[in-house]
Predict the 3D structure of the following.
Amino acid sequence: MALPARVYLNGEYLPAGSARISVFDRGFVFGDGVYEVIPVYGGRPFRLTHHLQRLDASLASVRIPNPLNPGQWHDIFRELIAEHGAVDQSIYLEITRGAAPRDHAFPAAVTPTVFAYSQPLAYPAPEQIRSGVHAITVADIRWTRCDIKAIALLANVLMRQTAVESGCAEAILIRDDRITEGAASNIFIVSGGSLATPPKGPFILPGITRDLVIELARDHGIPCSERDILRSELFAADEVWMTSSTKEILPIVRIDDRDIGGGRPGPALQRMLELYQDYKHALRKGHAE
Ligand SMILES: Cc1ncc(COP(=O)(O)O)c(C=O)c1O
């Protein structure tokens, strides 16, 4: 994936190659910042209110005041989206606490750094949707504030890399013998026609895609529960899915070298993909957010 040509940085739109931050930026030095990834379909950001609410929750948790109001965010997104026209895109935005002499405690006066860009959405390969992907389970080595969308993603990077080196697309994270989520996704299982996904709390990111899947299931009479899921339930499930803004919903058909549901995507996924595509279609027409 090529780098974006133009970015927003602290009030300016710049060629990416000319954008500069301080080497003392606390995002660079401590990973002291938060981020969001927002898909854009037909020029319309997907579930923007939910993404901006999650951003506010992350910022409040790390005690960085939101430097911009919703109108200012909308203006930036409009400008960044316009560059790519109607092509489906994903917006990345990041806010760090700003640049200051290195000290773990918060600096007395500091201006947050605000960075954003939009780029064409890199959809999963059609083959991954048709045939599914493979995953491994790994110990969840992260902290206990996984609900914050923090830029400090070293544990996630290491766990995803372990998956990739095993020829897999995702690592499913296990804490106390229970599934938490994927290295960069939420996880659902399907058993006997019912969906289940781990509950919100300090051990998972409250995924926007996850919430939409739950909403679509409830609106269409598909049973869905938010509950603890034991690792062993993965292998007994009829289907396992991963969800995220950029991957949408992907079937996981093999975990730790064991086939799930006969090693093929199942009917519940087909139904949910239809509902998800219908929702995106409504969004493109301006009938959904
Ligand atoms: C750790 C983690 N969990 C879950 C998700 C899915 O969240 P969303 O659906 O909002 O993209 C992500 C997305 O990148 C993630 O990094």
User: Anything to note?
Assistant: The two ends are 27 Å apart (CA to CA). The mean pLDDT is 97. Residues 37, 156, 181, 184-186, 205, 207-210, 243-245 surround pyridoxal-5'-phosphate (CB under 6 Å).
